[in-house]
């Protein structure tokens, strides 16, 4: 009985681990689409989770920085949101897989509210999605 109980507990733990991890897609277009869609879902709700949390401002319009650097900075900014970590974990996972970098630089000099950060991130990822679609069509 003890070995079967151990096996059942191990299986239960494995199922819990699998269900707690966000599903990630493999295509960059699908990842960008998922980020944009999740932002729209959050903004359509009554209130963005932790909307008054201040995060480092990412200058998405800075053409001196690569898209990968900006994606890395966005992921880094969202990792600072500890209170609503579960709400933003899917964003972080997709952003990290899109930029492929391990480190990036992000200044905490300028901060903005999360409720203002998310639409900027959504616009940026939507623009990237459109550029990928145009490149794929050519």
Descriptive tags:
single chain, 138 residues, mainly alpha, two-stranded antiparallel ribbon, 64% helix, 4% strand
Would you write up a description of this structure?
Residues 1-20 form the signal peptide. InterPro entries: 4_helix_cytokine-like_core, IL-4, IL-4/IL-13. One of its GO terms (molecular function) is interleukin-4 receptor binding. It comes from Bubo bubo (Eurasian eagle-owl). Keywords: B-cell activation, Signal. The protein has 138 residues and is mostly helical. 64% of the residues lie in helices and 4% in strands. Strands 1-2 form a two-stranded antiparallel sheet.
Please give a quick description of this structure.
This protein is mainly alpha-helical and 138 residues long.
- Order of strands side by side in the largest beta sheet? 1-2
Number of strands: 2
Question: Mean of residue pLDDT?
Answer: 82
The topology string of helices and strands comes to HHEHHEH
C-alpha termini separation: 63 Å
What is the helix tally?
5
How large is the radius of gyration?
A: 18 Å
Query: In this structure, how is the largest beta sheet organized?
Result: 2 strands, antiparallel
Structural class: mainly alpha
The fraction of residues assigned to DSSP E strands is: under 5%
Globally, the shape reads globular
Low-confidence stretches: 8-15, 17-25
Please estimate the helix content.
55-70%
